[in-house]
Every structure is written in C-alpha cells, then in structure tokens.
Amino acid sequence: MRSIEWKHLKGLHQLYENGKTKLKILNNEYINLVLFKQKKLIKFQEGNHSVVMVTNKKRFADFYEQNYLKTYKYYDDFFTDSGIENNAKKTFTEEDLKALVFIYYNREELRNNLTTQKKFSAQVFKYENSKYLENKPSLKNAVLQLLEINVFPEVDPKNQQWRFIVDCLDPKFVVLCENLDCLKVPIEYQENNIELWYVGGNNTKPLIHISQDKLNLPIYYFCDWDYNGLSIYSRIKQIFNDKNKNIEIIQPLPNAKRLPVSVKHHKSEWNKADFSNLTKNHFTETQVELIKELITNDEWIEEESMDLIAIMKEINI
C-alpha cells in the first residue's frame, strides 16, 4: 500500500461503501495520480467538485478489496478496541498509525520500561526526530491515552529490556527483527506463519533469558546490512550458540537497494579494519563477499527496503 493518511483511507472506504465521499482524498499524490488520472476509478461528481465518486463500482471494489480493505479493517478495529477517537480530522500518517497500533498491543511492556518522551519518540517513530511527539500534540495525547499515563518520565530507567512478540496460530519459524517496523503491521507475517520477535535493537540481554522451550522453531535474524546490524547479529548468534541453538541471518536478494553510509539519519559506519572487525565465521562465503562489497563501496542495505516474505519464499523457507 502506498503512503496514505487515515483521512484518505476513510475516504476510500466511503467510496467503497457509498460510491462517493466529500473527504478531500485527491490531495494525496498516489490517489490523485493512480486512481483518479491513470486508472480513472474515481471522478468528480458532475457539477460539484466537492464530491468524489466512483466511475465503476465493481472495478473500484475489486481494487479496494485487493489493496486497502484488510488494512482499513485492521486500523478501524484498533480505533474501536483502543478508544482513540476515530474521525477523518485526524492527521495521522501511515507511520503514525503503525506506531499507535504497535503501542496499543504492546502497551504493558512499553509502560513497564518507559523511556523519556524524546527517547520514546526517536525509538518508536523511527523516521522522525526526538521532538516529533512534542510537535504533534494530537498524536502525543493518543500515545499517552494508549499507555494510560499522564506524562513521560524525566529520566530513563537504568535497565530497559524490551521484548515484543507478534504471535501467530501456527508458526513455522521465528524471525528476530532488528527494527520495530515489521511488528507494526504484522498481518501479512501472521498469514505466512511467521512469529516475530523484537528485543530492542542493540539491547540483546533479554535473549539470554529465553527458555529452551521457546527455541524449538527455526530462528532467523532480519536486520540492516551495515556495521551495527551485522555486529549485533554476531552477538545474538553467540548467545544462541551458548544455548546450542543455531540462528541464521536473512540475506538480501541480489537486487536489494544499496545506500551510501553517509545518507541522512544513518549513523552506522564501517570500521576500516579487516572485515570491519566483524566475526567472519558467522557468515557464509556468499555473505562475506556481499559484506566486503558493502565495506569497499561504503554502502549499506536497509532492513525496511527488503521484502521479508519475498526473500523467505525465494530461498524456499
């Protein structure tokens, strides 16, 4: 699904149910370009440009059901269950919605290990800065409501140890994620029998205390292919080795997008020592060659740019 705010998603749902909407959905670039201009699934009502209507109910319904209906229901259920006010005036972006849902379903763990507002903002709203919540009062109020608190603490706890799990009914394997993003919209992973774990990025200590009975399934690690991501993988691999449990890293597909390490907001740089001081025997020969290329070219591969399910299917897992 292309980036879309909640108010636009509500407008599309009104079109699906009623055939028309008064919500200003055409100020969304994707809806305007694809649905309005290219596919011509929607148009202005004749003589009234304040109303948008579908051009063909069946064609629009097929498109909406394939691309948006499941996502709309997912977020609509969240609003109903959480008690957060649900209206088209909310300027929640797609990333805001993902984060709010994640906070709601993990509110107890987050509340028990609560960080300061700035740190919480930087960790949960990954693509924004530490003042993001401060500058979006409506979003901040929703976060406080979900966490059932009045204010954030002024000081971080000394021993913050997060461990979040997205369960599924019949898991075939576990994927341990370096970043939170996979856990924010877990529907597709659950449908593909993937159980997701997150332990706080650089904080690997919670893995030490995982009992043996939780290690029956195959476990994979999904991360940024940069110095920080790969060095954390080595620490995790050693933790599991001590438990006599193997863990494998998920390797990007050959056409994975590579970025310069100097790109904005990226803080992990390669060490110029041999193999960047990474533990070479933790990787296959193919993976070693890829890492060497990334080091030589000062590039990295972002976890969010990789399609986890497509990779798992490609390697027949």
Looking at the overall shape, the CATH architecture of the largest domain is 3-Layer(aba) Sandwich
Q: Main beta sheet: strand number and arrangement?
A: 5 strands, mixed
What is the count of DSSP helices, taking H or I runs of 4+ residues? 14
- Radius of gyration based on Cα positions: 22 Å
Q: What is the tally of beta strands?
A: 10
**Ends: how far apart?**
25 Å
**Which regions have little confidence, pLDDT < 50, spanning 5+ residues?**
none
Overall 3D shape? globular
- The share of residues in helices is 40-55%
How many independent structural domains?
3
Kindly report the CATH topology of the largest domain: Dna Topoisomerase Vi A Subunit, Chain: A, domain 2
Biggest sheet: strands side by side, in what order?
4-6-5-7-8
What average pLDDT do the residues reach?
A: 88
Helix/strand order, N-terminal first: HEHEEHHHHHHEEHHEHEHEEHEH
Name of the top-level CATH class of the largest domain = Alpha Beta
**Alpha-beta classification:** alpha/beta
Percent range for β-strand residues: 5-15%
Secondary structure: elements and pairs:
Layout: H1 6-18, E1 20-21, H2 29-38, E2 42-45, E3 48-54, H3 57-67, H4 69-82, H5 94-105, H6 107-112, H7 117-124, H8 137-147, E4 164-166, E5 173-177, H9 181-184, H10 187-191, E6 194-198, H11 205-208, E7 219-222, H12 227-242, E8 247-249, E9 259-260, H13 285-297, E10 299-300, H14 308-314
Parallel strand pairs: 5-6, 5-7, 7-8
Antiparallel strand pairs: 1-3, 2-3, 4-6, 9-10
Helix pairs in contact: 1-3, 5-8
